[in-house]
Amino acid sequence: MHDLVIRGAMVVDGLGRDPVRADVAVKDGRIAAVGNVGKDAAEIVDAGGLALMPGIIDIHTHYDAQVTWDPTLSPSPSLGVTSVVMGNCGFGIVPSPPPVRDLILRNLSVVEGMDLDALRAGTDWQFESFAEYMNMLRRRGPYMNLAVLVGHSAVRTAVMGEDASVRKQPTADELAEMKRLVGEAMDQGAIGLGASYSLNHSGYGGVPMPSTISDISEFDALVGAMGGPGRGVVEISSGPITPETMEGIAARHGRRIFMSTAIALYNEQYPQRALGVFDACAAAQARGNELYIQITCQPLSFDFTLASAYPFYSHPAFDPIKAYDREQLKAAYRDQSFRDRFRADLKAPLPGTVFQGNWQRVIVAAPVKPANAGLADRTIADIARDSGRDPLDAMLDLGLDEDLDTGFIGRFFNAVDDGVEPLVKHRAGVIALSDAGAHLVYLCDAGFGLYFLGHWVRERGAFDLAEGVRRLTSHQAGLYGIPDRGHIAPGAWADLLLFDPATVGISKARRVNDLPAGGARTLRDPLGVHGVFVNGTRVFDGKDYVKLGKGPGRVLDRFLPARASALATAAK
Fold it and tell me: Rounded CA gap, 367 and 395, in Å?
């Protein structure tokens, strides 16, 4: 007898084949049969013609700390995600010697926009080594399948402590220990190495995140420490590092590298720049060196106030004031010399900075004073023009008038569909960058897959349903070497999403205070989702999480070598 039968679904198999009406049977967590499978099952779900696809695979998340207090890993399972990769950008929480644990959390709170009180109250340090962290995940019983990257900044912090964000060059012994920790993590089941050289990645008090100050030779050495050719993947928030440099490292170590960088996001001020990065990666692939770009399919927006002006932190004018309290910030914002420095930065922004001076993309979302209510939903550029002021002065003056509590939205990248479409379709691109679990103060992009199905498949028609589903499932599984997931076929793990293609999507953002210590976060809700199953167990019923004694998710710790993992899934 089967454990589960989903009857009468329009099955979209994740491999790009045309959908077919069929039943899907599950036994012991795996798909037992597809077709007319009969009624002999412990549980029968009548799909009623809804679509059934493999669960979405999210390769860019930051649930490393949240998993220690929340096994549901909300909100991703409700948004159709069944497998995630954590530890991206190198900002994991392991290795974690006790003396550096609060340092880890302080830095994480800033670089990934997390509530520090929530991190301190919620993070359950049942581990120190990578092996102990993996064992904790297995005991925890997560609602999703989890793969973990070992992080460059994490190992640098474990070895160098506070010096990791100050001293560029490690000693020979320190580098040897970092290499040992990377190799040990790979032996314990890490999916690969995460790192960052992003100009936007600052830690607590404005210090640079550790890996961002290191010489590229240190990163190269850690990539080599992962093991032989094809062992594991590399994810890097590459900042100004060029594809040419990354290609050299990929070639030298036989490693598949996934870059994420603001330079590869569409910006109408520099409309050809992102496509040039994608084309450079495609050229590297043609030479046999596997270089890919992680591309978000959503407009990249930031909600912020001038009390926490994260989108501006990569500009040098903000370096001295990132750690200021509210009163110190108000004094700085009034200071004409600060305004002049910020204006000068915006005249020649460094490539890869989040905000590059387009004030038409900064919107007043939530004015505080009734007298300013008419400014809601207006851009800073328009407000400045109407008042005859410089846009920077208009924004700072408004914020100061409202005690830095004015809510702004910055729609900085990927805001023009015609410019984004060639990127999401590009053979060098992989749909990713949800940052799920992070930037909770500003945004919630965990529903990237539902957005993709609703916007790019149904509304815009950039992909048919079969190819759109492939781009969210077997594409990622193949490139990351994740076996038996991302497709619907006998023998595959039964990670499944039941949904209505006519209504699938995500809600508007909403704020809740449900983090440890009452911390706030931003959430989105699913639209058109009727069920999510992980390893054959329903974890979300379309309205709420299913209460389970222990989640069915597995810790993913065995992967196919890069050269063996289905390059046919890379692009059509």
Answer: 11
**CA gap 237, 262 in Å, rounded:** 9
Chain center to CA of 254: 25
Whole-angstrom distance, CA of residue 241 vs CA of residue 385:
37
pLDDT at 564: 52
| Residues 517/121, Cβ–Cβ less than 8 Å | yes
Adjacency order of strands within the sheet including 256-260 = 56-58, 81-86, 145-151, 192-196, 233-237, 256-260, 291-295, 429-431
The token duo for 562 is 């890069």
| Residue 305 to residue 11: CA distance in whole angstroms | 45
Helix and strand numbers (H, E) in the chain are 16, 23
What is the DSSP pairing of strand 233-237 with strand 256-260? parallel
CATH 3.20.20.140 domain range(s) in the chain: 56-301+414-487+505-517
Instruction: State the DSSP string of 16-70.
Output: SPPPEEEEEEEETTEEEEEE---S-EEEEEE-TT-EEEEPEEE-SB--TTGGGT-
Nearest to 230 by CA among 563, 7, 6: 563
Q: Closest by alpha carbon to 407, among 266, 526, 511? A: 511
Distance, in Å, from the CA atom of 311 to the CA atom of 342, rounded to the nearest integer, reads 13
Q: What is the structure's pLDDT at 570? A: 42
Inter-axis angle of helices 130-140 and 172-187, nearest 10 = 30
Q: What is the pLDDT of residue 59?
A: 98
Listed residue (48, 449, 90) closest to 236, CA to CA: 90
Phi and psi of 195, rounded to 5°? -155, 170
Residue 10 CB contacts under 8 Å (≥ 6 apart), including other chains = 19, 20, 21, 47, 49, 50, 51, 52
pLDDT for 563: 60
Cα-Cα-Cα-Cα torsion 416, 419, 425, 429, nearest 10 degrees, comes to -90
Query: Cis omega (within 30 of 0) on the bond before 170?
Result: no
Q: Which residue has the tokens 């990377």?
A: 182
Q: State which amino acid sits at residue 144.
A: M
Q: Which fold has domain 56-301+414-487+505-517?
A: TIM Barrel (3.20.20)
Report the chain (572 residues): mean pLDDT per 10 consecutive residues: 96 98 98 91 96 98 98 98 98 98 95 92 98 98 98 98 98 98 98 95 90 98 96 96 97 97 89 96 97 95 84 90 91 98 93 86 92 94 96 97 93 92 98 93 89 98 98 98 98 98 94 93 95 98 96 98 53 41
Burial of residue 564 (CB within 10 Å: 0-12, 13-18, 19+) is exposed
